[in-house]
Write a structure and sequence with these properties.
Blueprint: E1 2-5, H1 8-15, H2 17-22, H3 32-44, H4 53-66, H5 72-86, E2 89-94, E3 99-104, E4 109-110, E5 114-115
Antiparallel strand pairs: 1-2, 2-3, 3-4, 3-5
Amino acid sequence: MVVEVVDIGTAVINTNLLTLIHGIISNKYIDAEEVEDVALLLHSRKLFAGYDSNEALRILSTYYEKHDTLLAKDVEAIRDAYNNIFNPCRIIYDLETNQIQVSDKTNDKPSPSRRGGGQNNENR
Protein backbone atom coordinates (compact mmCIF):
# COMPACT_ATOMS: atom_id res chain seq x y z
CA MET A 1 0.00 0.00 0.00
CA VAL A 2 1.41 3.40 -0.98
CA VAL A 3 0.22 6.74 0.37
CA GLU A 4 1.59 10.20 -0.28
CA VAL A 5 1.46 12.55 2.68
CA VAL A 6 1.81 16.33 2.56
CA ASP A 7 2.15 18.99 5.19
CA ILE A 8 -1.13 20.90 5.01
CA GLY A 9 0.62 24.19 5.82
CA THR A 10 2.97 23.74 2.88
CA ALA A 11 0.07 22.98 0.55
CA VAL A 12 -1.93 26.00 1.78
CA ILE A 13 1.01 28.36 1.26
CA ASN A 14 2.11 26.94 -2.11
CA THR A 15 -1.43 26.97 -3.57
CA ASN A 16 -2.11 30.46 -2.18
CA LEU A 17 -5.26 29.03 -0.60
CA LEU A 18 -5.59 31.73 2.06
CA THR A 19 -5.85 34.43 -0.61
CA LEU A 20 -8.38 32.35 -2.54
CA ILE A 21 -10.68 31.82 0.43
CA HIS A 22 -10.41 35.38 1.71
CA GLY A 23 -12.93 36.66 -0.82
CA ILE A 24 -15.27 33.67 -0.51
CA ILE A 25 -15.57 32.87 3.18
CA SER A 26 -17.87 35.36 4.86
CA ASN A 27 -17.31 34.36 8.50
CA LYS A 28 -15.48 31.80 10.61
CA TYR A 29 -18.10 29.15 9.80
CA ILE A 30 -17.96 27.76 6.29
CA ASP A 31 -20.96 26.16 4.61
CA ALA A 32 -21.07 23.53 1.86
CA GLU A 33 -21.60 26.12 -0.89
CA GLU A 34 -18.48 28.04 0.17
CA VAL A 35 -16.46 24.79 0.25
CA GLU A 36 -17.64 24.04 -3.28
CA ASP A 37 -16.71 27.58 -4.43
CA VAL A 38 -13.20 27.24 -2.99
CA ALA A 39 -12.78 23.77 -4.53
CA LEU A 40 -13.87 25.06 -7.96
CA LEU A 41 -11.45 27.99 -7.75
CA LEU A 42 -8.59 25.74 -6.66
CA HIS A 43 -9.29 23.24 -9.46
CA SER A 44 -9.40 26.01 -12.06
CA ARG A 45 -6.00 27.45 -11.09
CA LYS A 46 -3.20 26.56 -13.46
CA LEU A 47 -0.89 25.17 -10.80
CA PHE A 48 0.58 22.30 -12.80
CA ALA A 49 3.02 23.69 -15.37
CA GLY A 50 0.35 25.97 -16.81
CA TYR A 51 -2.43 23.36 -16.62
CA ASP A 52 -5.36 23.27 -14.22
CA SER A 53 -5.96 20.04 -12.31
CA ASN A 54 -8.44 18.66 -14.87
CA GLU A 55 -6.10 19.35 -17.80
CA ALA A 56 -3.16 17.86 -15.89
CA LEU A 57 -5.15 14.74 -15.05
CA ARG A 58 -6.21 14.35 -18.69
CA ILE A 59 -2.59 14.62 -19.86
CA LEU A 60 -1.37 12.15 -17.24
CA SER A 61 -4.16 9.69 -18.07
CA THR A 62 -3.46 9.89 -21.80
CA TYR A 63 0.27 9.44 -21.24
CA TYR A 64 -0.03 6.44 -18.93
CA GLU A 65 -3.12 4.72 -20.34
CA LYS A 66 -2.51 5.30 -24.06
CA HIS A 67 1.30 5.43 -23.84
CA ASP A 68 1.39 8.75 -25.69
CA THR A 69 5.12 9.47 -25.48
CA LEU A 70 4.64 12.86 -27.12
CA LEU A 71 3.36 14.03 -23.73
CA ALA A 72 6.51 12.98 -21.83
CA LYS A 73 7.79 16.56 -21.35
CA ASP A 74 4.37 17.74 -20.18
CA VAL A 75 4.13 14.83 -17.73
CA GLU A 76 7.58 15.63 -16.34
CA ALA A 77 6.68 19.31 -15.95
CA ILE A 78 3.38 18.43 -14.23
CA ARG A 79 5.17 16.01 -11.90
CA ASP A 80 7.80 18.61 -11.03
CA ALA A 81 5.13 21.26 -10.35
CA TYR A 82 3.18 18.79 -8.18
CA ASN A 83 6.32 17.96 -6.18
CA ASN A 84 7.19 21.65 -5.77
CA ILE A 85 3.68 22.60 -4.64
CA PHE A 86 2.94 19.71 -2.29
CA ASN A 87 6.44 18.50 -1.34
CA PRO A 88 4.99 15.02 -0.72
CA CYS A 89 6.49 12.21 1.28
CA ARG A 90 5.71 8.68 0.11
CA ILE A 91 4.88 6.11 2.76
CA ILE A 92 4.98 2.47 1.70
CA TYR A 93 3.47 -0.19 3.95
CA ASP A 94 4.17 -3.82 3.08
CA LEU A 95 1.06 -5.75 4.13
CA GLU A 96 2.94 -9.06 4.16
CA THR A 97 5.89 -8.04 6.34
CA ASN A 98 4.32 -5.13 8.25
CA GLN A 99 7.29 -2.98 7.19
CA ILE A 100 7.02 0.77 6.70
CA GLN A 101 9.25 2.71 4.32
CA VAL A 102 9.28 6.48 3.95
CA SER A 103 10.60 7.97 0.71
CA ASP A 104 11.67 11.54 0.12
CA LYS A 105 10.08 12.50 -3.23
CA THR A 106 13.16 14.49 -4.25
CA ASN A 107 15.27 11.36 -4.54
CA ASP A 108 12.61 8.63 -4.27
CA LYS A 109 14.88 6.44 -2.13
CA PRO A 110 13.19 4.68 0.78
CA SER A 111 14.58 5.08 4.24
CA PRO A 112 15.23 1.91 6.27
CA SER A 113 12.12 -0.08 7.05
CA ARG A 114 10.56 -0.04 10.46
CA ARG A 115 8.24 -2.57 12.05
CA GLY A 116 4.58 -1.69 11.85
CA GLY A 117 1.54 -3.83 12.48
CA GLY A 118 0.27 -2.20 15.65
CA GLN A 119 3.29 -3.02 17.75
CA ASN A 120 4.48 -0.50 20.30
CA ASN A 121 7.74 0.48 18.62
CA GLU A 122 9.76 3.62 19.38
CA ASN A 123 10.91 3.89 15.73
CA ARG A 124 7.37 4.31 14.37
